[in-house]
Amino acid sequence: MTVISLKSALVRKGVTLPYAEAGYPNGTPVVFVHGLGDSWWSFEQLLQRLPASLHGYAPSQRGHGDADRPPDGYTPEDFASDLVAFLDVAGIERGLLVGSSTGGVAARIVAGSHPDRISGLVLVGVPATLADKPAAAALSETVQGLSDPVPRAVVESLMAGVTGRPVAPGLIKTMTDERLKLPARVWQGTLRGLLEADLGATLAGILVPTLVIWGDQDDLLPRDDQQAILDAIHGSRLLTYEGAGHAVHWEQPERVVADIAAFATQIARRATSGGR
Q1: What is the DSSP letter of 220?
Q2: Within 13 A of 49's CA, how many CA atoms are on the CB side?
Q3: Residue among 179, 246, 254, 178 at smallest CA distance from 217
Q4: Please, how many CA atoms are within 13 Å of residue 74, restricted to the half-sphere of its CB?
Q5: CB 95 within 8 A of CB 75
Q6: How far is CA 183 from each of CA 52, 146, 152, 204, 222, rounded to the nearest angstrom?
Q7: CB–CB of 49/91 below 8 Å?
Q8: Is the Cα torsion angle 44, 251, 222, 181 positive or negative in sign?
Q9: Is the pLDDT of residue 143 over 80?
Q10: What pLDDT does 272 receive?
């Protein structure tokens, strides 16, 4: 298992993001971006399994986990701006972005707007859009009714159904505890930003190599949603994990790490061969 170090990055005044770092100094930089409600802990299993070819970073986004909680700034563009600042603070000149769930929205904004900083993009259970998703509408209704302290029972209900197979009880408890750290206003502001944004537009202009990972038992994202991503990003490729649900990286961390490492190797080979 790889040793994980905990650090922090001041990305702008009043916004410090704790992050986990693991892997070998000379490995390809990989930045993991979590979704709504999660924190760097969402990627703990991946960080522990990084091969020598990868060096991982997993920041907790503003308002999430133990990160600072500014009074506003919870749109996808705000999270993307923090992510670019994180690359600067962490000294990552060019890295591979791995976004899970709604974290993939901020990741693809950065990939489209700063292609010079991004070598490749991996989207793990990421929606093309939320506008047509019944689950998103139901989540919005639940979240808008939240008040502090957010009840554990509500958070536990939001965790239900995110995996297609059972995962370690300790993981579910950890992620539930992490989600309970979010005040109601962060839940509400973040989800409002996602629902009000034109998520389809965030898929435009992405020219970096892109890998899409999706579990075929994902109750939130149907196959045609993933096809919309493939159609929008030229040359993107889909890996389907049979039997896996929405949180693919919780269910099959070894395979996800192996696929990310193989993808990073392909990008490096393409770069040294002049893109051929």
Answers
A1: S
A2: 16
A3: 246
A4: 26
A5: no
A6: 38, 9, 12, 33, 30
A7: no
A8: negative
A9: yes
A10: 77
Tokens at residue 222, please? 């149907």
For strands 28-33 and 210-215, give the pairing.
unpaired
Chain mean position to CA 191: 15
Element counts in the chain: helices (H) and strands (E): 10, 8
* Cα distances (angstroms) measured from residue 123 to each of 66, 93, 156, 212: 24, 21, 25, 5
CA dist 117 and 148 (Å) reads 39
Whether 80 contacts 54, CB under 8 Å: no
211 contacts 99 by C-beta, under 8 angstroms: no
The pLDDT, as a whole number, for residue 275 is 56
The residues, any chain, with a CB within 8 Å of residue 47's CB and separated by 6 or more, are: 2, 4, 20, 22, 23, 32, 56, 58
Q: Are 4 and 48 in contact (CB under 8 A)?
A: yes
Please say whether the beta carbons of 221 and 214 come within 8 A.
yes
| pLDDT tens by residue, 197-219 | 999 999 999 999 999 999 999 98
Q: How many residues does the chain have?
A: 276
Domains of the chain, start order = 4-272 (3.40.50.1820)
156 CB-contact burial (10 Å; exposed 0-12 / middle 13-18 / buried 19+) = middle
For residues 159 and 111, give the distance between their C-alpha atoms in angstroms, rounded to a whole number: 29
Q: Residue 247 has which token pair? A: 């949180």
